[in-house]
Amino acid sequence: MNLSNLRELSLSHGSDLSTVPLVSLMNLSSSLTSLNLENCQLHGELPQNIFQSHKLQSLDLRGNHLSGPIPCSSLNLESLIYLDLASNNFIGQLPEVFSNSTKKFSSYDSSKYPPGSFPSNLNSLYLSGNLLNGTIPSWIFELPYLVSLDIGLNSLTGEIRNFHSTSLQYLFLGGNELHGVIPRSIFQQVKLQYLDLSSNNFTVIVELEDLTKLKELEILYLSSNNVSWNFNSSKNYTLNNRLDLVLSSCNLIEFPPFLKSVQRLGSLDLSSNQLHGSVPKWLWEVGFAE
């Protein structure tokens, strides 16, 4: 069978490809633009030279048993838009690559992981639920069209920088070992719908003025961090969007006054804090969404 013109292939959910050499699947066609092998019982390491199709735009290997380091070649695909390697057993640091904007190469074992080019078209990156460590490489923050970033549930360290993209809708950093002050610019991503910074060592200062401008925000998870709120008590703030809010284990000593501004609260978790005294009457007047 001649598959040289094959453009899209999906074998996800139900296909047992545990005995199929992964290289043969990845290089079926030089015309391949989309490959979905989610939950296909794949295992083993990805060879450094496994990615040959420079037309590949979407690659989904989620939910397999892949291990070893993530090859730099996966980031050397100039057409790549969507990359999902979540829920595997990848280890080590995320590869650092040459950035188009900085043209610098950070300290990294280049003999073991040679640098790739900058995947500037990438808008969706899912790497959660692996065994990754080290800091988040600079090129991730520099992706100009980034919409979804899911790198939670690893052992990543270091601080968060400003994102070049102004199109972020989904940001999951929870369950790592990240620290430092969250840049205010995170709360100025006006298209943001889902923000999970939970279970890190962040210092999170939420400017209520910024929060009211996030008209699309539906999920805000800040638990197990140091969280504080900054607002002008003489101003009337209003949050009209339906919001699920988790602030457990945030060292809170009082009920956050900003809750008075929430018109449609979907759920609220204030457990494992240092709250004391009676529940303020105004909390019962907060609008809960049906």
Automatic annotation (TrEMBL):
Coiled-coil features, chain-numbered ranges: none
InterPro entries noted in UniProt: Leu-rich_rpt, LRR_dom_sf, StomDev_PlantInt_Reg
Cross-referenced Pfam families: LRR_1 (PF00560), LRR_8 (PF13855)
Domain of life from the UniProt record: Eukaryota
Protein name: Uncharacterized protein
The species this protein was found in: Ficus carica
